[in-house]
Amino acid sequence: MRQRATILATLLLAACIPSSSEKSPRTRSLPPQTSSVPPDRATAKCHADLRREEVGFRILPDRNFGGGCTSFGSVQLLDIGTPVTNLGAMTCPLARQFARWAREAVQPAARSWLGNPVARIESFGTYSCRPVNSQSGAKLSEHGRSNAVDIAAFVLVDGRRIDVLRGWNSEDEDIRRFLRAVHQAGCRRFQIGLGPNADSFHRNHFHFDMGRGPYCR
Q: Is residue 12 part of a domain?
């Protein structure tokens, strides 16, 4: 009986020791977490506006990058009816106005002045943690709050590329009128609108943001 009991105890002990062939559970790296706090009323309304206007977008997690740079209440535009390059985090109000600007101003102006719709809008991007005009000592740019977008060029369906740098003072009057039309339309939709007439920093793009305005140059 003692021998049987010893054998039985040995077998039970062996069953409790994991085999070398069994793998331990893997540690997973968790993806960035979205805020557990629901969006405020204004942001929720903005999301509803984008959906109603059939704008494709995804809600981004709130992030604080330090140094005053943040991405709060931001979205990424996925489909506004016209492809746009380099779009990252944008505050929802900025994204809403940008989608409206592209649809209500850019496309009609292109058809009117250039005889072709726009096939692609080229941007220099949105979020960037830097001071205004990237000048040391300047205050934080609205880009550092995901609250600004820079537009460099427009590519038409017929293949022509209309860029701000060469087109603003182009010999082609229709190109000049198109660029001024979309710049002025931006000034009406965004709080701040800057272009080549603002300063040398904006000679090659339009800067639009939803900061403290209104101001158009």
A: no
